[in-house]
């Protein structure tokens, strides 16, 4: 294990900043004693939050950044103009080797743009996909790409498949991960133009275990370990997962409260049900890495709570130790 | 109410043909005494199934069709070549005014192609979308398009929005239905090329209540009545709905059986939970109509059981009575 991994936390990112990112950072410091955190953002606001905690001052740095990029700002413009925003300042620390990773619950678009413009893509990588793990009946699967990289080309999807395969093998530890492309039927001739172009290219890839098309209904069953799609479709899958699980659970709860008999039953099943549902919580797998960059960038949910931020930070530690981007660099370069 | 509505049932369509379509037809005859069914397919196989039932022979016709179009056949070729298939023969009955509607659990692609090539689109309609109702916390919403019409243009999506709005008002009875376009963010400038082109066109539509973008996570909440998207995305949404609901329910059941305490609780909550889950069953809303055709075509799930087929037939009766395609014709023509 590497000593003293340094993680930059965007103290201004997410719906509940700076309170939640600072709390998440404090929790991560307690959980893993081998790390240092750099809180980037408005110094006065960060200091005010830090007053709530007792912590080892040697393990917490503050780097001042005066500006904040909002969720509704056009990302390219925002990253270019707001040189002193927490996202730009934080990513520059990673770029210049002053920290190992950057984690943020801020604007997905700005993180994607910043990741590619500031940290930079590994040579040969055409696009950096955002790749969260989603729960399935068979354990987590990697959904790649869910970012704002819309209107992708076939060559992008092929790289996503290869990077996703490296991730599932080296980070999650699945031997020979099954790679499938999201499609509207199982047959090779089905699909839109993009899928029809990508399918034969994936079949030719010698370094992945391509199993063909996957229909959306089979994703939750866990039929594939790496689920390849362009970002618009990936975003729909990720968000429908969250929304449908939440709505179904609230329906189940309503049902449980509907009769006297069911209320008694609800008390008895509560602990068992809670464990089951925990397995199927999309948030519990922490943040999503931007794969294929020269440095480590992890995005957590905009509505992240302190636990999510903590998970995102600890995930960065895992990624740093497992050298995920270095492995992508080595393996993608060998093949090309 | 119209007397003696005549519905053509594809006796060879679906995973369990001819047993299930014949049984569904028999159930529909019992449920609604004002209808006649035409079973189209291989006469000997249909007769053998019919032997299982007691029914009014005046209300059941058999029209022979020797061929069957399989799920894996390229649809355009299949519809062109298999002139004597149950789908082609059945659709021709509707085209020539010999029946009011055609319902099939067969190949979605062949039904889509046949609907457009044989029954034909209403003048001015560029594409006939497949539009199923999906369950939400606010009641059913129309997901338009889920067919095999991939790679749609902005003008198609605008027509889908208008047809969907007419459907929700006139068939489902929702005044001023909320129409939204599936997107990866709430802001107007978000989305892929197709969404960015379609959004301003929808804003200009005077005859629909366009409420902007809907993120996939808000679909199950019921934030929109008409959910507009191109077919690839619609298909992913529809199938993920099915798959995720099924996987979550089986997880809940596993959880309930995990401890002695939870098993007792499970017995107490069973009736209440069953009712709740019924509301969220994607299959329970019957089939999906192909909107914008000169005649009525309804597609039910490939794995339909007799209840689904029965629901599809009764839905055809409702559509016929409500003259859905005539209303689309009148209203779309007025505007253009």
Could you characterize what this model shows?
Two copies of one chain form a homodimer. Chain A is of the alpha/beta class and 336 residues long. Chain A has eleven helices and eleven strands. Chain A has helices at 19-31, 43-50, 75-81, 86-95, 108-119, 154-170, 193-204, 231-256, 260-279, 306-322, 324-335; strands at 5-10, 35-41, 60-64, 101-104, 133-134, 141-144, 178-182, 209-214, 226-228, 288-289, 296-299. In chain A, the strands form two sheets. A six-stranded mixed beta sheet of chain A has the order 3-2-1-4-11-10, with helices on both faces. In chain A, strand 2 (35-41), helix 2 and strand 3 form a beta-alpha-beta unit. In chain A, helix 4 packs parallel to helix 5. The longest helix of chain A has 26 residues, at 231-256. Chain A starts with a strand and ends with a helix. The mean pLDDT of chain A is 90. At the A-B interface, helix 8 and helix 9 of A face helix 8 and helix 9 of B.
Provide the fold topology.
Two copies of one chain form a homodimer.
Chain A: E1 5-10, H1 19-31, E2 35-41, H2 43-50, E3 60-64, H3 75-81, H4 86-95, E4 101-104, H5 108-119, E5 133-134, E6 141-144, H6 154-170, E7 178-182, H7 193-204, E8 209-214, E9 226-228, H8 231-256, H9 260-279, E10 288-289, E11 296-299, H10 306-322, H11 324-335
Parallel strand pairs in A: 1-2, 1-4, 2-3, 4-11, 6-9, 7-8, 7-9
Antiparallel strand pairs in A: 5-6, 10-11
């Amino acid at each position: 294990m590497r000593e003293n991994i340094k993680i930059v936390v965007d103290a201004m990112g997410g719906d509940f900043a700076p309170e939640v990112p600072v709390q998440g950072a404090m929790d991560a410091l307690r959980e893993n004693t081998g790390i240092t955190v750099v809180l980037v953002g408005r110094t006065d606001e960060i200091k005010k939050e830090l007053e709530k905690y007792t912590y080892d001052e040697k393990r917490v740095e503050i780097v001042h950044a005066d500006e904040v990029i909002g969720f509704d700002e056009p990302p390219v413009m925002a990253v270019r103009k707001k040189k002193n925003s927490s996202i730009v300042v934080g990513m520059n620390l990673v770029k210049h080797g002053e920290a190992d990773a950057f984690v943020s619950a801020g604007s997905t678009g700005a993180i994607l743009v910043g990741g590619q413009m500031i940290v930079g893509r590994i040579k040969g990588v055409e696009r950096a996909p955002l790749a969260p793990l989603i729960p399935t009946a068979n354990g987590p699967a990697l959904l790649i790409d869910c970012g704002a990289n819309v209107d992708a080309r076939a060559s992008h999807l092929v790289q996503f498949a290869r990077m996703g395969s490296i991730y599932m093998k080296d980070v999650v530890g699945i031997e020979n991960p099954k790679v499938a492309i999201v499609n509207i039927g199982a047959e090779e001739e089905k699909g839109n133009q993009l899928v029809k172009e990508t399918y034969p290219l994936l079949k030719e890839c010698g370094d992945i275990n391509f199993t063909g098309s996957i229909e959306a209904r089979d994703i939750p069953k866990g039929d594939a370990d790496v689920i390849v799609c362009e970002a618009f479709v990936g975003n729909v899958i990720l968000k429908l997962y969250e929304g449908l699980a939440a709505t179904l659970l609230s329906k189940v709860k309503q049902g449980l409260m509907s009769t006297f008999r069911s209320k008694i039953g609800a008390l008895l099943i509560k602990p068992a049900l809670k464990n089951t549902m925990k397995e199927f919580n999309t948030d519990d797998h922490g943040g999503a890495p931007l794969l294929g960059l020269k440095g480590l960038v992890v995005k957590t949910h905009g509505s992240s709570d302190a636990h999510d931020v903590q998970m995102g930070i600890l995930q960065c530690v895992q990624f740093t130790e497992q050298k995920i981007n270095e492995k992508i660099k080595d393996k993608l370069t060998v093949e090309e």
